[in-house]
Amino acid sequence: MSQTKRIVVKVGSSLLANPDLLTPRWAFIQRLLEDIALLRSEGYEVVLTSSGAVALGLNTLNVKPENAGLRDKQAAAACGMPIVLNAYKQVAHEFGFDIAQVLVTRGDLEERRRFLNTKNTVHRLLNGNVMPIVNENDTITTEEIRVGDNDRLAARIAQMIQAQHLVILTSVDGLYDKDPSEPGAKLVEELHDVSEYLSVTEGTSALGSGGMLTKMQAANMAQNAGCTTLIANGEADNPVSSVLKNQRPHTKCIANTEPASAWTAWLTDRLQMAGSLVITNEAADALAAGKRGVERADVQSIHGPYVRSDVIHIYDEEGLERARGLTNFSSEETMLLARNLDTETTKLLGYHTKATLVSRDNLVVLDERHLPWDSPAEDEMEPVAR
């Protein structure tokens, strides 16, 4: 873990944009960047992940949030990005520091080479004393290739830079043990296992794409990388430092004491499912014992499409997710190999290679620290007929 004090701050659309006027909330931006300037003077490196481009751009297009389709949102993001960056840049200059925009898509964070390129850019900006503002490139992304929410995007960035804290600023004080509008709802001040509260995390804000569920998923991703997540209401003076100093109510999701390596964290904490395999229970137990990788004879069914070097999810016959790993073959090649066990790989594929689908070194067995993904529906899985 890096010894540099690093914080990732995530700001939601409901804090940045006036919900009625769809204009920047300048007073909030002023409070936020003044606080970040204070943290920077205390030796912290800060990365900001900020929503708001779509919300602010809708005003330019004269489109209401509830009526906005995908094309409207993409065009609104193009209109709103200059508004967001101009607001941040003006206020940041008041406090004596510079900002830079880093736009990413899901592929930039899920494909290893592009992930490392993004990481190098963020580190270079930090080394130059410039605060990166990271956001999804909503002008070009469709539902199929989106990260989906800036909570998990922020957690991915926290993993990337080995941050000690992820601070998620939202419109409530944190996670409650039930719907905060219900009588008797209590703030959960500290937790280690986010899975205990997933059942009470449904719902999203009017302007944002994420709710408390995505914040719990983000917290789990950060925990696995040794990063503590703090979820708090952004409507406060010194919105970040006051939470770090425990001066106001918030929810603290404690980092794992034995964090995963950077490679393991990248491999296991996915933003979207590229594809999956169902393997025999015997093979799944062998994976858990660390004895081997996934062989073609293990496969019962396949969910694709996916390509070579995608990270796929591996389930046993009961639908329990057991591992995630970097595949050596596309879904089409995997099916060909699994259906023709007695045929040499060279004859099937046209090139010489071993038939191991996922190598042991590129596979991580899941444990209680990971939130499992539901197995795809049976009608989405293609069985291996031998």
Attribute tags:
six-stranded mixed beta sheet; RNA binding; 386 residues; PUA-like_sf; alpha/beta; Archaeosine Trna-guanine Transglycosylase, Chain: A, domain 4; ATP binding; Carbamate kinase
| Poorly predicted ranges | 204-210
What's the Cα radius of gyration?
Answer: 22 Å
Largest sheet: 8 strands, mixed
> What fraction of residues sit in β-strands?
15-25%
Mean pLDDT: 90
CATH architecture of the largest domain: 3-Layer(aba) Sandwich
CATH topology of the largest domain: Carbamate kinase
Enzyme class: transferase
InterPro entries: AceGlu_kinase-like_sf, Asp/Glu/Uridylate_kinase, G5K_ProB, Glu/AcGlu_kinase, Glu_5kinase, Glu_5kinase/COase_Synthase, Glutamate_5-kinase_CS, PUA
Pathway: Amino-acid biosynthesis; L-proline biosynthesis; L-glutamate 5-semialdehyde from L-glutamate: step 1/2
GO molecular function, one term: RNA binding
Describe this structure in words.
By secondary structure, the protein is of the alpha/beta class. It has two domains: 6-265, 3-Layer(aba) Sandwich (Carbamate kinase); 273-383, PUA domain (Archaeosine Trna-guanine Transglycosylase, Chain: A, domain 4), CATH 2.30.130.10. Helices cover 34% and strands 19% of the residues. It contains 13 helices and 14 strands. The protein has helices spanning 13-16, 26-41, 53-61, 70-94, 106-110, 112-127, 150-161, 212-224, 241-244, 262-268, 281-288, 331-339, 345-349, and strands spanning 6-11, 45-50, 98-104, 130-136, 165-170, 190-191, 228-233, 251-253, 276-279, 299-303, 311-315, 321-327, 358-365, 382-383. The strands form two sheets. The protein has an eight-stranded mixed β-sheet, sandwiched between helices. A six-stranded mixed β-sheet has the order 13-12-11-9-10-14, with helices on both faces. Helix 2 crosses helix 4 (70-94), helix 3 packs across helix 4 (70-94) and helix 7 packs parallel to helix 8. The radius of gyration is 22 Å and the shape is globular. Belongs to the glutamate 5-kinase family. It catalyses: L-glutamate + ATP = L-glutamyl 5-phosphate + ADP.
